[in-house]
Amino acid sequence: MSLPQTLHSAAQRRASEASKHRRRLQLTDLGCVIWSATGAQLVRFGTVNDSLVGSSHEWHAPYWLVTIVLAALWWVVLGAWGTRETSILGYGPEEYKRVVTASLWLFGAIAIVSYVFQLDTARGYVAVALPLGIVTLLGARWVMRAVLVSARSNGKHLRRVLVVGSPAAAAHTGRQLSEHLEAGYLPIAAYLPGYPGAELRTPVRELPVLGYAEDLDSIVSIVERTGVDAVAISGAALPPQVLRQLGWQLAARDVGMIVAPALTDIAGPRIRTQPVAGLPLIHVTTPKLTGGKRVLKRSVDIVASLAILAVLSIPMLLVALAIFIDDPGPVIFRQTRIGRAGKPFQMLKFRSMVVDAEARLKELQRDNEGAGLLFKMKHDPRITRLGRFLRRYSVDELPQLINVLRGEMSLVGPRPPLPSEVAGYDDFAHRRLLVKPGVTGLWQVSGRSDLSWEDSIRLDLYYVENWSLTQDFMIVLRTLRAVVGKSGAY
């Protein structure tokens, strides 16, 4: 088989994989909405078949028909809202946001129609169908995402990408895409127009450079020869006219074109594109957790922490008793941490170490396995038998909910730093102190103690720069998985 035939066959195989996943997603969504609509009918009406909906003066329809129509509309709206687009599957919160938004819009439309036409729709039916459907859909999407990410980590469902740009910009784009294969992009080669003889190396992989010419025909030839699925233009790689013509050529060959600006760790909600005189200007908004946003976050902190403490109060008392029996002494460990705006506070934790742990820290410094300014040991001799269990499942952090109620911490935020760590911060790291530290955060769900110092700082800064309530919700869900998985906990 010739090279063009081999590449065409590989492209067909990748397209077939994507098509199969979309079909599985469609069937999964269909099953979820049928389950939710049927469940709502059974909860509200039981097995009675004579329940009717309609106008009190004109026509009526049985609820089994409403259930069928609702499930069909829900499934169609999910597709129309783009919840199954390949570009959003496997990475980021956009898929989940679209599922929730589509569902809310559908039920909002149903409420408007019911009001306008004076339909006697059972509120209990809607009150069950909507939350049941959203929870079911999100749970199913989470499972499907786990399957997709697993497949991508094994080299499947990946779009092969040719990176075009300057050496620095192409290396940055290639590194970011290679480190996040769950997003579905695999850089296979680079094209460096105007930089003859340059090589491209990234910490993740070395990308072969296939050309340096600045003409359109050379790039198109490389695209055809490699059989890539997309071309990622990084930085000001080509003149505007050549870039426009390249877009036409790629569209004719059903190859995607991705423009990757030199923006790192900027979340989607902060980016707005505005066409001006033919130029797609990218506006990046300034992150501000003030006013209504701060009130909303604080309200969620108070309600959620109170609810959790109410549910776990008795188990926490039992944990405290177990700590005292295992190693007599104070059950609560208090440590000075630095909060928002550099204000110190006493962070509370269940004691997981021996009573004189702080005094023994100096003698263990030579065995420090932590990164940067952090002290970590996988087998710290100061940890008690029970303490190792508490740390592994993050039970020792539950008293921090009291810090949340006091307003010293938030449920989600950057890792609460020690004064010694803050003393070593550079100007950029100090931005972590713009918001309250959190009981959990991106550091908790991205490796915990296994993170390097640089990655820990980067994740905290990302959170500060891109805060949203949706992101907080997703971090809480990922925290539950991280705690169960126990990765990086010691």
TrEMBL record:
GO terms for molecular function: transferase activity. It is a multi-pass membrane protein. This is Sugar transferase. The chain crosses the membrane at residues 61-78, 99-118, 124-144, 302-325. Signal peptide: none annotated. Residues 347-374 form a coiled coil. Residues 297-484 form the Bacterial sugar transferase domain. NCBIfam families: EPS_sugtrans. It is found in: Membrane. It comes from the Bacteria. Belongs to the bacterial sugar transferase family. Keywords: Coiled coil, Membrane, Transferase, Transmembrane, Transmembrane helix. Residues 1-20 are annotated as: Disordered. It comes from Sinomonas flava. Its main location: membrane.
